[in-house]
Amino acid sequence: MNEVKTVLVNNLTKGFDNIMAVSGINFEVYCGECFGLIGPNGAGKSTTIKMLTTLLPPDDGEAVINGYSIVKNPAGVRGSIGYVPQLLSVDGAMTGYENLLVFSKLYGLKRKQREERIKRVLDITGLEDAAHRQVKTYSGGMVRRLEIGQAILNYPQVLFLDEPTVGLDPVARKTIWKHIEKLRCEQNMTILLTTHYMEEAEALCSRIAIMNKGKIAVMGTARELRESTGNPHAGMDDVFAYYAGALESQEGDLRDASRTRRTAKRLG
Ligand SMILES: Nc1ncnc2c1ncn2[C@@H]1O[C@H](COP(=O)(O)OP(=O)(O)OP(=O)(O)O)[C@@H](O)[C@H]1O
Ligand SMILES: [Mg+2]
């Protein structure tokens, strides 16, 4: 990690009909850093990621990714990022290899380059042996690894991961962590991820921002967040409850559980 800032977010704002999904947030991410956006359901995490990946225009504010403005040069932003959405982005009827091939064509890679990149991505994601099986036979963790593979085919400088491990068992989750950490260390990729899991944020992210109701409630290293609650020995779940509100997180758990089941069903 160095002091170059790859992501600069300034007063980013987005409202829907009767709700301010994101209210004037500010943060920066350094080159080669893994930065975590944490928060309960509806906090505004996905809306933030969609604005940063240029899928949604902001109502106000600005962000600069790799030197490109999301407002003035969305095409420049798109060319230098990878994005793994919260919802499924692979085709179960195709093999892993075929899914990667479609994406490599979308990225405009030449034939020779396509073969090289797909081989490299299968290696990075540990999917070589399963490459020629239909994706509907994959486990949830394998599907998520394939989605990450799709997102890194164009060797992006910044990778956005919206809940990379939702619905996965603890072992599959740790495998995904290992791959994310590998991308960050070996490719010096800057990674911005969202999660509900505080332990995940602590394991992967050098800094964490806790979002609640469209605002960033607090931001810092896991240690700084603990100390900011007045109890340096607080568990990370206590930190989450402190900033996100115990009631909301309970309500969130219920919605999270039903969504996890939906995800499992889609993957199944
Ligand atoms: N397209 C949309 N139209 C209307 N409201 C929306 C839309 N997208 C998001 N919202 C609302 O904006 C708020 C923030 O949603 P967002 O999806 O960003 O939250 P989140 O933090 O990603 O939540 P989760 O943890 O459940 O994924 C929510 O109240 C949501 O209902
Ligand atoms: Mg979301």
Could you please describe the fold and organization of this structure?
It comes from Desulfocucumis palustris. It holds the Pfam family ABC_tran. Keywords: ATP-binding, Nucleotide-binding. InterPro entries: AAA+_ATPase (IPR003593), ABC_transporter-like_ATP-bd (IPR003439), P-loop_NTPase (IPR027417). The protein is α/β, with parallel strands linked by helices and 268 residues long. It folds into two domains: 170 residues, 3-Layer(aba) Sandwich (Rossmann fold); 68 residues, no CATH class. Helix content is 43%, strand content 24%. It has ten helices and ten strands. The strands form two sheets. It has a six-stranded mixed β-sheet with strand order 6-7-8-3-9-10, with helices on both faces. It has a four-stranded antiparallel β-sheet with strand order 2-1-4-5. Helix 3 crosses helix 4, helix 4 packs across helix 5 and helix 9 packs across helix 10. The radius of gyration is 18 Å and the shape is globular. The structure holds adenosine-5'-triphosphate (ATP) and magnesium ion.
